[in-house]
Amino acid sequence: MSERVGSNRGGATAQIGVTGLAVMGRNLARNLARHGYAVAVHNRTPVRTRSLIAEHGHEGTFVPSESMADFVASLERPRAVIIMVKAGGPTDAVIDELIPLLEPDDIVIDCGNAHFADTRRREEALRAHGLHFVGTGVSGGEEGALLGPSIMPGGSAEAYRKLGPIFESIAAQVDGVPCCVHVGPDGAGHFVKMVHNGIEYADMQLIAEAYDLLRERLGATPAEIGEVFGTWNEGDLESFLIEITADVLKHVDARTGKAFVDVVLDQAEQKGTGRWTVQSALDLGVPITGIAEATFARSLSGHPEQRAAAARAYAEAGGEAPAGAVNRDAFIEDVRRALYASKIVAYAQGFDQIRAGSEEYGWQIDPAALATIWRGGCIIRARFLNRIREAYDSDPDLPTLLVAPYFVKGVADSVASWRRVVGYAAQAGVPAPAFASSLAYYDGLRRDRLPAALIQGLRDNFGAHTYRRVDADGSFHTQWAGDLTETPGWPEQPGVTEDPAVPRNG
Question: Which positions are annotated as active-site residues?
Answer without folding.
Answer: 193, 200
